[in-house]
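Throughout our pipeline, every protein is held as a single compact record rather than as scattered files. Such a record has a labelled line for the sequence and another for the backbone structure tokens. This encoding replaces a full spatial description with a residue-level series of whole-number codes. For reference, a complete record is included directly beneath this paragraph.
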Amino acid sequence: MIAPGDVLRILKAIHAGRGNGVTAETLTMEIHGRANPAAVRALRAAIEELRLGGEPVCGKPQTGYYYSDDPVDIQETIDFLRSRAMTTLVQLKPLKRRLARARRGQMTLFTTGDVR
């Protein structure tokens, strides 16, 4: 398990500011000593918890994670997270449409040629 406090301490001490961004794998290594998939997921959960608490954990794939009080960095992170959320939401509409048709009996969920 990776504690949010440990993540925050390392980000503030070593990865403050955009120029000091770090990948999830490297940050996991710094905190946990190894970066297996479960540890990286635990790191991302800790970052989510920090963000939900209002901590300005910034970053996107191009910059890596970093701590910043700079309003520009925070806004860029907000924009990135919103874009990711919108991409996910856009995918829901066609899936919901297909499910509705299946429930009305207009089609089966798995048609010929679908991979199960």
